[in-house]
Write a structure and sequence with these properties.
Blueprint lengths: L3 E6 L6 E5 L6 E6 L14 H10 L12 H4 L10 E7 L7 H11 E12 L15 H7 L10 E3 L12 H12 L13 H8 L4 E8 L5 E5 L5 H12 L7 H6 L4 E12 L4 E20 L2 E13 L12 H13 L8 E3 L4 H9 L3 E13 L9 E5 L5 H17 L5 E3 L3 H9 L7 E7 L5 E9 L4 E7 L5 H11 L7 E7 L12 E12 L7 H4 L3 E2 L9
Parallel strand pairs: 1-3, 2-4, 4-5, 11-12, 15-21
Antiparallel strand pairs: 5-7, 6-7, 8-9, 9-10, 10-11, 10-15, 13-19, 13-20, 14-16, 16-17, 17-18
Helix pairs in contact: 5-6, 11-12
Protein backbone atom coordinates (compact mmCIF):
# COMPACT_ATOMS: atom_id res chain seq x y z
CA UNK A 1 0.00 0.00 0.00
CA UNK A 2 1.29 3.44 -0.82
CA UNK A 3 2.06 5.90 1.95
CA UNK A 4 -0.94 8.00 2.98
CA UNK A 5 -0.88 11.54 4.38
CA UNK A 6 -3.53 12.48 6.91
CA UNK A 7 -4.26 16.16 7.44
CA UNK A 8 -4.89 16.18 11.15
CA UNK A 9 -6.29 19.69 11.61
CA UNK A 10 -8.23 20.17 14.82
CA UNK A 11 -8.87 16.66 16.17
CA UNK A 12 -10.30 15.82 19.57
CA UNK A 13 -11.07 12.15 20.13
CA UNK A 14 -12.37 12.46 23.66
CA UNK A 15 -15.57 10.57 22.95
CA UNK A 16 -14.52 8.52 19.92
CA UNK A 17 -12.17 5.55 20.16
CA UNK A 18 -9.73 5.09 17.28
CA UNK A 19 -8.27 1.60 16.80
CA UNK A 20 -5.56 1.20 14.20
CA UNK A 21 -4.35 -1.92 12.40
CA UNK A 22 -1.14 -2.72 10.57
CA UNK A 23 -1.56 -0.01 7.91
CA UNK A 24 -1.08 2.70 10.53
CA UNK A 25 2.67 2.28 10.10
CA UNK A 26 2.27 3.38 6.47
CA UNK A 27 0.61 6.71 7.31
CA UNK A 28 2.15 10.10 7.91
CA UNK A 29 0.24 12.66 9.99
CA UNK A 30 1.05 16.19 8.93
CA UNK A 31 0.04 19.83 9.33
CA UNK A 32 -0.88 19.51 12.99
CA UNK A 33 -2.14 22.71 14.58
CA UNK A 34 -3.41 21.75 18.01
CA UNK A 35 -3.19 19.16 20.72
CA UNK A 36 -4.67 15.67 20.59
CA UNK A 37 -6.38 14.24 23.65
CA UNK A 38 -7.66 10.75 24.25
CA UNK A 39 -5.87 8.97 21.39
CA UNK A 40 -6.08 5.23 22.08
CA UNK A 41 -4.72 2.10 20.45
CA UNK A 42 -5.43 -1.46 21.53
CA UNK A 43 -2.44 -2.75 19.57
CA UNK A 44 0.41 -2.87 22.09
CA UNK A 45 3.08 -2.96 19.40
CA UNK A 46 1.86 0.35 17.98
CA UNK A 47 2.02 2.36 21.19
CA UNK A 48 5.65 3.55 20.77
CA UNK A 49 4.90 4.41 17.13
CA UNK A 50 1.80 6.40 18.09
CA UNK A 51 3.80 8.39 20.63
CA UNK A 52 6.61 9.02 18.15
CA UNK A 53 4.22 10.21 15.42
CA UNK A 54 2.38 12.52 17.79
CA UNK A 55 5.65 14.01 19.05
CA UNK A 56 6.82 14.57 15.48
CA UNK A 57 3.63 16.54 14.86
CA UNK A 58 4.56 19.02 17.56
CA UNK A 59 1.98 17.86 20.10
CA UNK A 60 2.84 17.99 23.77
CA UNK A 61 3.42 14.49 25.08
CA UNK A 62 1.63 15.12 28.38
CA UNK A 63 -1.58 15.73 26.47
CA UNK A 64 -1.53 12.27 24.89
CA UNK A 65 -3.40 9.55 26.78
CA UNK A 66 -2.92 5.98 25.57
CA UNK A 67 -4.69 2.96 27.08
CA UNK A 68 -4.08 -0.72 26.40
CA UNK A 69 -7.65 -1.87 25.91
CA UNK A 70 -6.46 -5.38 25.16
CA UNK A 71 -5.30 -5.89 28.74
CA UNK A 72 -8.57 -4.55 30.10
CA UNK A 73 -10.85 -6.64 27.95
CA UNK A 74 -13.73 -7.95 30.09
CA UNK A 75 -12.13 -6.66 33.24
CA UNK A 76 -13.09 -3.74 35.45
CA UNK A 77 -12.08 -0.58 33.63
CA UNK A 78 -12.76 3.09 34.12
CA UNK A 79 -13.44 3.30 30.38
CA UNK A 80 -16.45 0.97 30.47
CA UNK A 81 -19.34 2.62 28.65
CA UNK A 82 -17.24 5.75 28.06
CA UNK A 83 -17.24 6.12 24.27
CA UNK A 84 -20.00 7.33 22.00
CA UNK A 85 -18.36 5.81 18.97
CA UNK A 86 -15.43 3.76 17.71
CA UNK A 87 -13.62 3.71 14.38
CA UNK A 88 -11.71 0.52 13.52
CA UNK A 89 -9.27 0.82 10.62
CA UNK A 90 -7.83 -2.40 9.20
CA UNK A 91 -7.88 -4.32 12.48
CA UNK A 92 -9.09 -7.60 11.00
CA UNK A 93 -5.67 -8.26 9.53
CA UNK A 94 -3.72 -7.70 12.73
CA UNK A 95 -3.23 -9.70 15.91
CA UNK A 96 -5.86 -10.25 18.60
CA UNK A 97 -8.81 -9.18 16.47
CA UNK A 98 -11.33 -10.95 18.68
CA UNK A 99 -10.00 -9.39 21.87
CA UNK A 100 -10.04 -5.94 20.29
CA UNK A 101 -13.67 -6.25 19.28
CA UNK A 102 -14.61 -7.53 22.73
CA UNK A 103 -12.83 -4.55 24.27
CA UNK A 104 -14.58 -2.13 21.93
CA UNK A 105 -17.99 -3.51 22.86
CA UNK A 106 -17.13 -3.08 26.53
CA UNK A 107 -16.13 0.57 26.34
CA UNK A 108 -18.89 1.70 23.99
CA UNK A 109 -21.95 3.32 25.52
CA UNK A 110 -25.34 1.73 24.88
CA UNK A 111 -26.36 3.32 21.59
CA UNK A 112 -22.71 3.89 20.71
CA UNK A 113 -21.73 3.42 17.10
CA UNK A 114 -19.03 1.19 15.64
CA UNK A 115 -17.56 1.91 12.22
CA UNK A 116 -15.55 -0.91 10.62
CA UNK A 117 -13.34 -0.16 7.65
CA UNK A 118 -11.23 -3.02 6.33
CA UNK A 119 -9.68 -4.33 3.15
CA UNK A 120 -11.28 -7.37 1.52
CA UNK A 121 -9.50 -9.41 -1.13
CA UNK A 122 -10.84 -12.11 -3.40
CA UNK A 123 -9.74 -15.75 -3.06
CA UNK A 124 -7.05 -15.59 -5.72
CA UNK A 125 -5.54 -12.46 -4.14
CA UNK A 126 -5.06 -13.82 -0.61
CA UNK A 127 -2.12 -16.10 -1.27
CA UNK A 128 0.87 -14.87 0.69
CA UNK A 129 -0.84 -11.72 1.92
CA UNK A 130 -1.82 -10.60 5.38
CA UNK A 131 -5.03 -11.93 6.90
CA UNK A 132 -8.10 -10.61 5.10
CA UNK A 133 -11.78 -10.96 5.79
CA UNK A 134 -14.75 -11.83 3.66
CA UNK A 135 -18.17 -10.28 4.24
CA UNK A 136 -19.46 -13.36 6.08
CA UNK A 137 -16.28 -13.33 8.15
CA UNK A 138 -17.25 -9.98 9.63
CA UNK A 139 -20.72 -11.20 10.46
CA UNK A 140 -19.21 -14.28 12.10
CA UNK A 141 -16.60 -12.68 14.29
CA UNK A 142 -19.00 -10.02 15.54
CA UNK A 143 -21.54 -12.75 16.29
CA UNK A 144 -24.11 -10.88 14.23
CA UNK A 145 -27.23 -12.73 13.20
CA UNK A 146 -30.17 -10.62 12.16
CA UNK A 147 -32.55 -13.19 13.65
CA UNK A 148 -30.89 -13.12 17.08
CA UNK A 149 -30.94 -10.72 19.99
CA UNK A 150 -27.30 -9.68 20.05
CA UNK A 151 -25.51 -6.73 21.55
CA UNK A 152 -25.08 -5.16 18.12
CA UNK A 153 -27.82 -4.11 15.76
CA UNK A 154 -27.04 -4.07 12.06
CA UNK A 155 -28.22 -1.05 10.13
CA UNK A 156 -26.15 -1.61 7.02
CA UNK A 157 -27.34 -3.95 4.31
CA UNK A 158 -25.49 -6.74 2.55
CA UNK A 159 -24.46 -4.45 -0.30
CA UNK A 160 -22.23 -2.48 2.04
CA UNK A 161 -20.39 -5.64 3.00
CA UNK A 162 -19.04 -6.23 -0.48
CA UNK A 163 -15.46 -5.81 -1.59
CA UNK A 164 -16.49 -3.15 -4.13
CA UNK A 165 -17.77 -0.35 -1.89
CA UNK A 166 -18.71 2.83 -3.73
CA UNK A 167 -16.92 5.81 -2.25
CA UNK A 168 -20.16 7.64 -1.48
CA UNK A 169 -21.23 4.75 0.77
CA UNK A 170 -18.00 5.06 2.71
CA UNK A 171 -18.42 8.81 3.10
CA UNK A 172 -22.05 8.42 4.11
CA UNK A 173 -21.19 5.94 6.86
CA UNK A 174 -18.37 8.11 8.17
CA UNK A 175 -20.64 11.13 8.24
CA UNK A 176 -23.29 9.23 10.16
CA UNK A 177 -20.78 8.41 12.86
CA UNK A 178 -19.28 11.91 12.98
CA UNK A 179 -22.65 13.66 13.06
CA UNK A 180 -23.62 12.00 16.29
CA UNK A 181 -22.26 14.79 18.51
CA UNK A 182 -21.11 17.62 16.33
CA UNK A 183 -21.41 19.09 12.87
CA UNK A 184 -18.68 18.89 10.25
CA UNK A 185 -15.72 21.11 11.04
CA UNK A 186 -16.80 21.87 14.60
CA UNK A 187 -14.36 21.52 17.46
CA UNK A 188 -14.40 17.94 18.66
CA UNK A 189 -15.31 16.42 15.30
CA UNK A 190 -13.43 13.71 13.44
CA UNK A 191 -11.60 14.67 10.27
CA UNK A 192 -13.55 12.11 8.22
CA UNK A 193 -11.79 13.01 4.99
CA UNK A 194 -8.64 11.38 6.34
CA UNK A 195 -10.48 8.08 6.74
CA UNK A 196 -11.81 8.33 3.23
CA UNK A 197 -8.32 9.14 1.92
CA UNK A 198 -6.91 6.09 3.63
CA UNK A 199 -9.48 3.80 2.02
CA UNK A 200 -10.08 5.33 -1.38
CA UNK A 201 -7.42 3.47 -3.37
CA UNK A 202 -8.11 -0.08 -2.20
CA UNK A 203 -10.96 -2.55 -2.00
CA UNK A 204 -12.48 -2.06 1.42
CA UNK A 205 -15.83 -2.62 3.01
CA UNK A 206 -17.32 -0.14 5.41
CA UNK A 207 -19.97 -1.20 7.87
CA UNK A 208 -21.76 0.60 10.67
CA UNK A 209 -22.95 -1.09 13.86
CA UNK A 210 -24.78 0.24 16.89
CA UNK A 211 -24.48 -1.13 20.41
CA UNK A 212 -27.99 -1.71 21.68
CA UNK A 213 -27.18 -2.99 25.17
CA UNK A 214 -24.44 -4.43 27.34
CA UNK A 215 -23.46 -7.79 25.81
CA UNK A 216 -25.11 -10.75 27.51
CA UNK A 217 -22.64 -13.11 25.89
CA UNK A 218 -19.13 -12.89 24.50
CA UNK A 219 -16.35 -15.03 23.06
CA UNK A 220 -12.74 -14.81 24.23
CA UNK A 221 -9.53 -16.80 24.26
CA UNK A 222 -8.99 -18.60 27.54
CA UNK A 223 -5.81 -18.29 29.56
CA UNK A 224 -4.67 -20.03 32.71
CA UNK A 225 -6.87 -17.75 34.81
CA UNK A 226 -9.84 -19.51 33.16
CA UNK A 227 -8.58 -23.02 33.95
CA UNK A 228 -11.16 -23.61 36.69
CA UNK A 229 -13.93 -22.54 34.30
CA UNK A 230 -12.63 -24.97 31.66
CA UNK A 231 -12.39 -27.88 34.09
CA UNK A 232 -15.89 -27.27 35.47
CA UNK A 233 -17.32 -27.26 31.95
CA UNK A 234 -15.39 -30.44 31.13
CA UNK A 235 -16.98 -32.23 34.10
CA UNK A 236 -20.46 -31.14 33.06
CA UNK A 237 -20.01 -31.97 29.37
CA UNK A 238 -18.21 -35.31 29.65
CA UNK A 239 -19.20 -36.48 33.16
CA UNK A 240 -15.54 -37.23 33.93
CA UNK A 241 -12.57 -35.59 35.56
CA UNK A 242 -10.16 -33.56 33.40
CA UNK A 243 -6.60 -34.84 33.29
CA UNK A 244 -4.33 -32.61 35.42
CA UNK A 245 -1.92 -30.62 33.26
CA UNK A 246 -3.63 -31.51 29.98
CA UNK A 247 -4.98 -28.01 29.26
CA UNK A 248 -1.44 -26.62 29.65
CA UNK A 249 -0.05 -29.35 27.39
CA UNK A 250 -2.56 -28.58 24.64
CA UNK A 251 -3.08 -24.85 24.79
CA UNK A 252 -0.65 -22.99 27.06
CA UNK A 253 2.68 -21.39 26.07
CA UNK A 254 1.64 -20.96 22.43
CA UNK A 255 0.85 -24.65 21.87
CA UNK A 256 -2.70 -23.98 20.75
CA UNK A 257 -5.82 -21.86 21.09
CA UNK A 258 -8.57 -22.29 23.66
CA UNK A 259 -11.73 -20.37 22.78
CA UNK A 260 -14.63 -19.95 25.18
CA UNK A 261 -18.24 -18.83 24.85
CA UNK A 262 -19.37 -16.93 27.97
CA UNK A 263 -22.82 -15.82 29.09
CA UNK A 264 -23.65 -13.35 31.81
CA UNK A 265 -25.50 -15.37 34.48
CA UNK A 266 -27.27 -13.93 37.51
CA UNK A 267 -27.19 -15.69 40.86
CA UNK A 268 -30.84 -15.66 41.93
CA UNK A 269 -30.04 -16.90 45.42
CA UNK A 270 -27.63 -14.11 46.33
CA UNK A 271 -29.08 -11.36 44.19
CA UNK A 272 -25.56 -10.38 43.09
CA UNK A 273 -24.88 -8.85 39.69
CA UNK A 274 -24.49 -11.08 36.67
CA UNK A 275 -21.14 -12.79 36.22
CA UNK A 276 -19.65 -14.39 33.12
CA UNK A 277 -19.97 -18.18 32.97
CA UNK A 278 -18.19 -20.43 30.45
CA UNK A 279 -20.95 -22.21 28.53
CA UNK A 280 -19.04 -23.74 25.60
CA UNK A 281 -15.48 -24.36 24.43
CA UNK A 282 -13.67 -24.96 21.13
CA UNK A 283 -9.95 -25.72 21.07
CA UNK A 284 -7.22 -26.13 18.48
CA UNK A 285 -3.78 -27.70 19.02
CA UNK A 286 -0.93 -26.66 16.73
CA UNK A 287 0.45 -29.41 14.53
CA UNK A 288 3.22 -29.06 12.00
CA UNK A 289 2.34 -30.79 8.76
CA UNK A 290 3.61 -31.46 5.29
CA UNK A 291 1.03 -30.16 2.84
CA UNK A 292 1.83 -32.02 -0.38
CA UNK A 293 5.49 -31.97 0.58
CA UNK A 294 5.60 -28.37 1.82
CA UNK A 295 5.89 -27.37 5.46
CA UNK A 296 2.76 -25.82 6.90
CA UNK A 297 0.70 -25.68 10.08
CA UNK A 298 -2.63 -27.25 10.98
CA UNK A 299 -4.81 -26.97 14.06
CA UNK A 300 -6.20 -30.19 15.45
CA UNK A 301 -9.64 -29.37 16.79
CA UNK A 302 -10.48 -30.77 20.20
CA UNK A 303 -12.30 -30.29 23.50
CA UNK A 304 -15.43 -29.12 21.70
CA UNK A 305 -18.06 -29.04 24.43
CA UNK A 306 -21.26 -27.30 25.46
CA UNK A 307 -22.72 -26.96 28.94
CA UNK A 308 -25.67 -29.41 29.05
CA UNK A 309 -27.55 -26.92 31.24
CA UNK A 310 -27.29 -24.17 28.66
CA UNK A 311 -28.30 -23.58 25.06
CA UNK A 312 -27.33 -26.68 23.09
CA UNK A 313 -28.94 -25.50 19.89
CA UNK A 314 -27.07 -26.61 16.79
CA UNK A 315 -28.54 -23.77 14.75
CA UNK A 316 -26.77 -20.55 13.80
CA UNK A 317 -28.04 -19.08 17.07
CA UNK A 318 -26.33 -21.75 19.14
CA UNK A 319 -22.93 -21.56 20.84
CA UNK A 320 -21.31 -24.23 18.64
CA UNK A 321 -21.86 -22.25 15.46
CA UNK A 322 -20.68 -19.00 17.04
CA UNK A 323 -17.57 -20.60 18.50
CA UNK A 324 -16.64 -22.68 15.47
CA UNK A 325 -16.96 -19.86 12.95
CA UNK A 326 -15.16 -17.37 15.19
CA UNK A 327 -12.32 -19.85 15.69
CA UNK A 328 -12.00 -20.42 11.96
CA UNK A 329 -12.05 -16.69 11.27
CA UNK A 330 -9.31 -16.03 13.78
CA UNK A 331 -6.96 -18.92 13.07
CA UNK A 332 -7.56 -21.16 10.03
CA UNK A 333 -7.36 -20.53 6.29
CA UNK A 334 -5.27 -18.69 3.73
CA UNK A 335 -3.06 -15.97 5.21
CA UNK A 336 -3.86 -17.10 8.74
CA UNK A 337 -1.56 -18.81 11.21
CA UNK A 338 -2.82 -22.30 10.33
CA UNK A 339 -3.56 -23.32 6.76
CA UNK A 340 -5.77 -26.25 7.72
CA UNK A 341 -7.93 -27.52 10.53
CA UNK A 342 -8.57 -31.19 11.22
CA UNK A 343 -10.75 -33.02 13.70
CA UNK A 344 -12.54 -36.28 14.36
CA UNK A 345 -16.29 -35.68 14.73
CA UNK A 346 -18.88 -38.43 14.56
CA UNK A 347 -21.37 -38.66 11.70
CA UNK A 348 -24.10 -36.70 13.49
CA UNK A 349 -21.80 -33.79 14.34
CA UNK A 350 -20.38 -33.87 10.83
CA UNK A 351 -23.83 -33.56 9.26
CA UNK A 352 -24.78 -30.63 11.48
CA UNK A 353 -21.53 -28.76 10.76
CA UNK A 354 -21.93 -29.42 7.04
CA UNK A 355 -25.51 -28.06 7.02
CA UNK A 356 -24.28 -24.94 8.81
CA UNK A 357 -21.58 -24.45 6.17
CA UNK A 358 -18.73 -24.82 8.68
CA UNK A 359 -17.17 -28.15 7.61
CA UNK A 360 -17.22 -30.49 4.65
CA UNK A 361 -16.31 -34.17 4.90
CA UNK A 362 -13.11 -35.24 3.14
CA UNK A 363 -12.50 -38.71 4.61
CA UNK A 364 -13.25 -41.08 7.47
CA UNK A 365 -11.40 -43.35 9.88
CA UNK A 366 -11.43 -47.14 9.56
CA UNK A 367 -10.21 -49.76 12.01
CA UNK A 368 -8.07 -52.65 10.82
CA UNK A 369 -7.92 -55.80 12.94
CA UNK A 370 -5.42 -58.66 12.79
CA UNK A 371 -5.49 -61.85 14.85
CA UNK A 372 -2.46 -62.11 17.09
CA UNK A 373 0.23 -64.48 15.91
CA UNK A 374 2.87 -66.43 17.77
CA UNK A 375 6.07 -67.69 16.27
CA UNK A 376 9.71 -66.99 15.59
CA UNK A 377 10.87 -63.55 14.55
CA UNK A 378 13.71 -62.83 12.11
CA UNK A 379 16.97 -63.08 14.09
CA UNK A 380 18.58 -60.34 11.99
CA UNK A 381 16.00 -57.82 13.22
CA UNK A 382 15.76 -56.41 16.71
CA UNK A 383 13.04 -54.47 18.53
CA UNK A 384 14.20 -52.01 21.19
CA UNK A 385 11.83 -50.27 23.59
CA UNK A 386 12.60 -46.56 23.75
CA UNK A 387 12.55 -44.89 27.16
CA UNK A 388 12.66 -41.17 27.94
CA UNK A 389 16.37 -41.25 28.67
CA UNK A 390 17.10 -42.93 25.32
CA UNK A 391 15.88 -40.11 23.14
CA UNK A 392 19.04 -38.05 23.03
CA UNK A 393 20.79 -41.15 21.68
CA UNK A 394 18.06 -42.54 19.41
CA UNK A 395 16.53 -39.28 18.21
CA UNK A 396 18.70 -39.14 15.05
CA UNK A 397 17.39 -42.58 14.00
CA UNK A 398 13.80 -41.37 14.41
CA UNK A 399 14.64 -38.36 12.23
CA UNK A 400 16.20 -40.65 9.63
CA UNK A 401 13.02 -42.75 9.48
CA UNK A 402 10.84 -39.67 9.15
CA UNK A 403 13.02 -38.44 6.26
CA UNK A 404 12.33 -41.72 4.44
CA UNK A 405 8.62 -41.75 5.27
CA UNK A 406 7.87 -38.23 4.11
CA UNK A 407 9.25 -39.03 0.66
CA UNK A 408 6.44 -41.57 0.27
CA UNK A 409 3.76 -39.01 1.12
CA UNK A 410 4.52 -36.08 -1.18
CA UNK A 411 0.98 -36.32 -2.57
CA UNK A 412 -0.64 -36.35 0.87
CA UNK A 413 -1.24 -34.18 3.91
CA UNK A 414 0.58 -35.70 6.86
CA UNK A 415 1.59 -34.57 10.32
CA UNK A 416 5.31 -34.19 10.93
CA UNK A 417 6.73 -37.19 12.78
CA UNK A 418 10.27 -36.15 13.54
CA UNK A 419 12.13 -36.82 16.81
CA UNK A 420 11.00 -33.60 18.48
CA UNK A 421 7.34 -34.32 17.80
CA UNK A 422 7.64 -37.98 18.80
CA UNK A 423 9.36 -37.15 22.07
CA UNK A 424 6.81 -34.48 23.00
CA UNK A 425 3.73 -36.44 21.90
CA UNK A 426 4.51 -39.82 23.41
CA UNK A 427 6.61 -38.99 26.46
CA UNK A 428 5.18 -35.69 27.69
CA UNK A 429 1.42 -36.05 27.20
CA UNK A 430 -0.19 -36.01 30.67
CA UNK A 431 -2.32 -38.97 31.68
CA UNK A 432 -0.93 -41.46 29.15
CA UNK A 433 1.77 -44.12 29.18
CA UNK A 434 2.57 -45.22 25.65
CA UNK A 435 4.94 -47.96 24.56
CA UNK A 436 7.43 -46.81 21.92
CA UNK A 437 9.72 -49.22 20.06
CA UNK A 438 12.47 -48.91 17.48
CA UNK A 439 12.75 -51.73 14.95
CA UNK A 440 16.18 -52.11 13.37
CA UNK A 441 18.59 -54.39 11.60
CA UNK A 442 20.82 -56.19 14.10
CA UNK A 443 23.85 -56.27 11.82
CA UNK A 444 23.72 -53.05 9.81
CA UNK A 445 22.18 -51.11 12.74
CA UNK A 446 19.98 -49.29 10.25
CA UNK A 447 16.52 -48.29 11.59
CA UNK A 448 13.45 -49.91 9.99
CA UNK A 449 10.59 -48.23 11.82
CA UNK A 450 9.16 -46.71 15.00
CA UNK A 451 6.11 -48.42 16.49
CA UNK A 452 3.91 -46.69 19.09
CA UNK A 453 1.35 -48.72 21.07
CA UNK A 454 -1.50 -47.69 23.33
CA UNK A 455 -2.33 -50.69 25.50
CA UNK A 456 -4.96 -51.20 28.17
CA UNK A 457 -6.79 -54.25 29.51
CA UNK A 458 -9.15 -54.31 26.52
CA UNK A 459 -7.11 -53.12 23.55
CA UNK A 460 -3.69 -53.58 22.01
CA UNK A 461 -3.49 -50.81 19.42
CA UNK A 462 -0.71 -49.67 17.13
CA UNK A 463 -1.44 -45.93 17.14
CA UNK A 464 1.51 -44.56 15.17
CA UNK A 465 4.16 -45.67 12.74
CA UNK A 466 7.24 -43.85 11.44
CA UNK A 467 8.64 -45.80 8.52
CA UNK A 468 8.70 -45.89 4.72
CA UNK A 469 5.89 -47.82 3.06
CA UNK A 470 8.30 -50.64 2.12
CA UNK A 471 8.64 -51.54 5.80
CA UNK A 472 4.92 -51.66 6.69
CA UNK A 473 4.72 -55.45 6.32
CA UNK A 474 7.70 -55.96 8.66
CA UNK A 475 6.03 -53.69 11.22
CA UNK A 476 2.74 -55.61 11.18
CA UNK A 477 4.67 -58.89 11.33
CA UNK A 478 6.33 -57.77 14.58
CA UNK A 479 3.25 -56.04 16.03
CA UNK A 480 1.05 -59.13 15.67
CA UNK A 481 3.54 -61.20 17.62
CA UNK A 482 3.82 -58.54 20.32
CA UNK A 483 0.03 -58.59 20.75
CA UNK A 484 -0.05 -62.36 21.27
CA UNK A 485 0.39 -61.96 25.03
CA UNK A 486 -2.57 -59.59 25.32
CA UNK A 487 -5.98 -60.94 26.52
CA UNK A 488 -7.76 -59.57 23.43
CA UNK A 489 -5.62 -61.77 21.18
CA UNK A 490 -5.75 -59.18 18.39
CA UNK A 491 -3.92 -56.16 17.03
CA UNK A 492 -5.77 -52.96 16.14
CA UNK A 493 -4.82 -50.02 13.92
CA UNK A 494 -6.89 -46.99 12.90
CA UNK A 495 -6.17 -45.13 9.69
CA UNK A 496 -7.89 -42.79 7.24
CA UNK A 497 -9.95 -44.81 4.80
CA UNK A 498 -8.02 -43.55 1.78
CA UNK A 499 -4.82 -45.18 3.06
CA UNK A 500 -6.34 -48.35 4.53
CA UNK A 501 -5.30 -50.47 1.53
CA UNK A 502 -1.64 -50.06 2.52
CA UNK A 503 -2.36 -52.16 5.62
CA UNK A 504 -4.64 -54.86 4.21
CA UNK A 505 -2.21 -57.74 4.64
CA UNK A 506 -1.72 -60.90 6.72
CA UNK A 507 -5.40 -61.71 7.20
CA UNK A 508 -6.54 -58.18 8.09
CA UNK A 509 -10.21 -57.28 8.30
CA UNK A 510 -11.67 -53.79 8.00
CA UNK A 511 -14.21 -52.41 10.48
CA UNK A 512 -16.26 -49.22 9.96
CA UNK A 513 -16.07 -46.49 12.61
CA UNK A 514 -18.25 -43.48 13.33
CA UNK A 515 -15.37 -41.01 12.87
CA UNK A 516 -15.30 -38.47 10.05
CA UNK A 517 -12.54 -36.17 8.81
CA UNK A 518 -13.73 -32.60 8.11
CA UNK A 519 -12.21 -29.71 6.23
CA UNK A 520 -12.74 -26.00 6.81
CA UNK A 521 -15.57 -24.78 4.59
CA UNK A 522 -16.04 -21.37 6.23
CA UNK A 523 -12.96 -19.27 5.51
CA UNK A 524 -10.82 -18.95 2.40
CA UNK A 525 -8.50 -21.94 2.22
CA UNK A 526 -7.38 -24.89 0.12
CA UNK A 527 -10.22 -26.37 -1.92
CA UNK A 528 -12.34 -29.12 -0.40
CA UNK A 529 -11.87 -31.17 -3.57
CA UNK A 530 -8.09 -30.95 -3.27
CA UNK A 531 -8.22 -32.38 0.26
CA UNK A 532 -10.50 -35.32 -0.51
CA UNK A 533 -8.72 -38.51 0.52
CA UNK A 534 -5.39 -36.77 1.17
CA UNK A 535 -5.05 -36.83 4.96
CA UNK A 536 -2.86 -39.54 6.53
CA UNK A 537 -4.20 -39.81 10.07
CA UNK A 538 -3.84 -42.47 12.74
CA UNK A 539 -5.00 -42.72 16.35
CA UNK A 540 -1.81 -40.99 17.46
CA UNK A 541 -2.97 -37.89 15.61
CA UNK A 542 -6.03 -37.70 17.89
CA UNK A 543 -5.57 -35.55 20.97
CA UNK A 544 -7.89 -37.72 23.08
CA UNK A 545 -6.08 -41.04 22.49
Amino acid sequence: MSTQTIQAGDINLKSVLLILGRHFSNMNIANAKSSVTGLHSSHQDLLPLVKERIASMGYRANQVLIHDLLAQSHGETQLKGYYDGAVCLDIFDSAHTLEKLNAVLQVLKPGGELLLVNEVLQDEETQGLAKTWSPKSVESILRIDKSSDGALSVETNADLLSSQVPLFNLIRQCERLGAKECSSGAKGSIDLSSIVELCADTNRFCSRRQKTEEPKEFIKHLNRENLEDFENLFRLAFASEPTPGLWDYKFNHGRGFSLGFFQMVEDDSSGSKAKPQLMAHYGGIKREILYFGKKSLALQIGDVMVNPRGNQSLSRRGPFFKLATTFLEEHIGLAREALLGVGFPNEKAMKVASLLGVYKEVDGIKEIVWPSKKGMLPFWEVLLEIKVDDFSRLGPQVDALWSLMKKDFQAAVIGVRDANYTFDRYFHRPGKNYQVYLLGNRFTRSPLGVLVFNVDEHRFELIDVIAPKAHFRKIIHWARRMSSSHPSDELLLRITQSFADLWMMEGARLNPLDIKIPANAWTHGPSIEGLQGRWWLMSGDMDFV
